[in-house]
Amino acid sequence: MDGDLTRILYTVSVWVAPLLIAITLHEAAHGWVAWRLGDDTAKRLGRVTFNPFAHIDRFGTILLPALLLLLKSPFLFGYAKPVPVNFARLHEPRRDMVWVALAGPGINLAIAFVSALALHLLPLFPGEAQEWVFYNLRNSILINVLLAVFNMIPLPPLDGGRVAVGLLPDRLAFPLARLERYGILILLGLLILLPLLGGAVGLDLDIFRQVLHPLVDGVTGLLMRGAGFG
């Protein structure tokens, strides 16, 4: 029993810090860029902060991932509390919306790259500490690349959807923007329900495995090569 508890605590210790850093800086980056571009809504509400508790959503960050783990779902999904942005207060709302949206995935890629560079420092740590630091850095790379790629799916309210709305011509942007209220439901359907239905009829409809997983692997490979590995 003690051994099981030790393994659980060790596993938690190498996942929690990378996850909290990833979601905290992701959301804070949205708020900071919005503030610099004219909208101080997030700043006034205390969301431009490194305090993870300001960004944690009890359901999306804790309960939903835990439920999916218990159900042994092939896809682990979760989200933080969205940073409030009043796009009308931005200097150039259509253009600046794109920069605000890109800030989150951008900071995640930067964290992943810094984590990859930090792998070069592993020889400075003693035996067991070296292993613990390695797993934290490895998980940081995985979590941050996954967050960046996932959030760039071109479906509002994900960041990629906001980017698409800001860049597409009006005849395409307006219908896409109207999907925002249904975006999370559509996403859950595509990534969780569709594979389950496909499995029931003998079809491989796992979009995550077929599309997102190769993208995550490709981006991770580029970052690792850029950091001097491979």
UniProtKB/TrEMBL annotation:
The keyword Chloroplast does not apply. It comes from the Bacteria. Its cofactor is Zn(2+). InterPro entries: Metallopeptidase_M50B, Peptidase_M50, Rip2-like. Residues 141-190 form the Peptidase M50 domain. GO terms for biological process: proteolysis. GO terms for cellular component: plasma membrane. The chain crosses the membrane at residues 12-35, 56-77, 97-121, 182-203. Keywords: Cell membrane, Hydrolase, Membrane, Metal-binding, Metalloprotease, Protease, Transmembrane, Transmembrane helix, Zinc. It is a multi-pass membrane protein. It is found in: Cell membrane. GO terms for molecular function: metal ion binding; metallopeptidase activity. Belongs to the peptidase M50B family. PANTHER family: ZINC METALLOPROTEASE MJ0611-RELATED, ZINC METALLOPROTEASE YWHC-RELATED. This is Peptidase family M50. It comes from Oceanibacterium hippocampi.
